[in-house]
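hi! just following up on the protien thing from before. the input was this:
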Amino acid sequence: MTTYKNKIRNAFDKAHDYNRSAHVQKIVVRQLIAKIKKLYQYRPHPVSILEVGCGTGFLTQELLKLFPTAQFTITDISSNMIEYLKQNYKNTTSNIHFEVMDGENPSKNYHSFDLICSSLAFQWFENLPTALQQLSNLLTPNGYLVCSTLSEGNFIEWKHLYESNGYSNSFQQYPSIDRLQTYWPSDHGHGYWEEEKIIDRSISGYQFIKDLRSIGAHTPRNMHRPLSAGRLRKIIDQFDTNYGYTTYQIAYGIFQRFAAKGYFVTGTDTDVGKTFISACLVKLLNALYWKPIQTGLNCDPGDTNTICKLTGLRDQQIIPPLIELQHPLSPEAAAEIENIKLDIHQMNFTLNDPSKTYIVEGAGGIFVPIAENQFMIDCMKKINLPVIIVARTSLGTLNHTLLTIECLRHHHIPIAGVILNGSSNPANKKAIERHGKVRVIAEIPKAETVDARTIKDFCKKLSLFN
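and the predicted 3d structure came back as:
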């Protein structure tokens, strides 16, 4: 353990008045729990949970209320914090395991967890990107890592007072929200950050300094020499006169591990070439194919049969549709005619084998309605694979494609790229990449006839997936 980490551990070991002084920490925990509740509103509850940096148990207590039957592993770098919690839960529950652990170096003995949580501990990490990679490696498929940490913009009042008096300060520099976004490991999941400003008006300058020491949060990263008592009193007096409040900038991070390897194929509109591209990807990646919702079976044999014919897939490489509807309409409209009630929350979108590669094809575009207030984009969230957008190259594609990209990003759905299907149009390709800030994976000319040979030929244009 580094010298800095030893200082952190010792500071928290001595934080005997943590519960009384950590009022901002309590606010952040409430916000974090609200986000966790929303994530699991329509999902099965986690069976195994890891908490990193438990402190005296603000988050632990709320997690136990929310998921009382889960198995918990509760950790902290401070042995005193762990002992405190052990005593609190000594005779109340048998589903908690306590362990002293540095969150940047999780135990090699751990198995995977459905949910990993941490509140206001990551700002003490020396290498947060590496830590996020290691922790995400411990997630089960579809598992979540949910955390809070300090971001750029904290304690600006105090920093201004130090600078205006010509004093150096020991406040740490925290990463911006954009910088934090680059820390997520993108190889097997997708994460995003949300930011919140908290203005703490509840304490005087003297009480702020005292509380930092009470919760063990006063350890500087550098070799900063503290101010003399006289200079510190001057700063505190100026704070009480000019400010009387402290700004906290909190970043809330949510990362989800992908359900499996593979892609969800969506389109910008109808008949844009999703099934053709799906066939190419299935053949290229030797993947399993799944069309969860199929309509229009009274007009054609359906996309699953078409894929089988084009690729020669074996039965074990086909996942049958969850819903099959006869009319060539949106799922919502077809189901209404056929007197079928659809609800995606009652459908099983689980990909059962994380070791396999899947190509999942949507029905139409991302806002095709499935039921009241339920759209294809909601299915995409549940299936949890990076998305490939299939778009035309012709006039109108910029608006359709950029709207699709913007909406997917707004809903925090990862985009693997765009495939353009049609006559070559270099200007549209360039515009999509520039305005959409996404790569065009391939441009595939529209085929006059589509058969197994065509699929084989066009697979060469998607060779970057190899």
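The chain has a mean pLDDT of 89.
The longest strand covers residues 139-150.
cheers
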